[in-house]
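SECTION: protein entry
WANTED: fold as tokens:
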Amino acid sequence: MRDGGEAREADADGDDAPRQETGRPAEPAPRTLLGRLRRHRPLASAVALALVATGVAVPLLLADSDDGPPCQEIPAATRALAENPAAATRALDPGDDLRRFDAVRAILAHEHPCGDGGEVLGAVVHAATRAARPDAPHTLARPAPPSRWPPL
């Protein structure tokens, strides 16, 4: 008699471990996360499925939200500059005193262009900066500004 007078019979081999129906000792409780997941496979599968579904659904919902700014159409006049390098050069020249800087910004500054708008803006810049002939420079070289420091 042990534990407050309860009577227990020991097995023939003297082992007091609880037995399964097969007569083998029961497995000890798993001590690792992997061991716990092996014992509860349906629960582990459900949790994994929920995590995967959340991982896929959240980005899709965020990408589909209409909270972003609407796209901006590129005007036809800006599209025409891509075909006329001389006009593109004049349109994108801010001037020596940068008086036309706001006009240049109005042509190029589009945060979210629609469709092929980004390609059109790139074509405008390319047209404005390419040379007329392969052997001719696009613009004349500007002289270097005078240095404040005496030569060494």
